[in-house]
Amino acid sequence: MHLGYATKSTGELIASYIKSAVTGIQTFLEKYGDDGRDELNQVSAPHIIAMAPATDSRIGYSGVEISSNNTLKTNIG
After folding, report:
1. What is the per-residue pLDDT across 23-48, written as a single tens digit (0 to 9) for each?
2. Checking DSSP bridges between strand 49-53 and strand 72-76, what pairing results, if any?
3. Distance CA 34, CA 15 (A)
4. CA angle, corner 73, sides to 63 and 62, nearest 5?
5. In terms of pLDDT, which residue wins out, 53 or 2?
6. 14 Cβ partners below 8 Å, 6+ apart?
7. Residues 35-46 as b or e (16 or more Cβ within 10 Å = b)
8. Global model pTM greater than 0.90
9. Residue 8: pLDDT above 70?
């Protein structure tokens, strides 16, 4: 039986999703500066990153979106 990357390297897989989310946040902050940071803090006050399937088709795999409970969500496949 062939075991895939997700099965053999689960920790690395999770770390790569979180790293992608952090990179997305950094890119957002570089683009929008202090105003972007203030808005992000307002719409996602809990400062939590969750992993879940995408709910917005405009946001790609490993993209970041704001979930309905105001947490940042990194999209998994």
Report:
1. 888 999 999 999 999 999 999 888 88
2. parallel
3. 27
4. 25
5. 53
6. 51
7. eeeeebeeebee
8. no
9. yes
Can you tell me the distance from the alpha carbon of 50 to that of 18, in angstroms, rounded to the nearest whole number? 9
Token duo for residue 75: 């999209």
Q: What is the 3-state secondary structure (H, E, C) of 6-24?
A: HHHCHHHHHHHHHHHHHHH
List the structure tokens of 35.
């105003």
Three-class secondary structure of residue 39 per DSSP = helix
Sheet of strand 72-76: strand arrangement: 49-53, 72-76, 64-66
50, 70 contact by CB (below 8 A): no
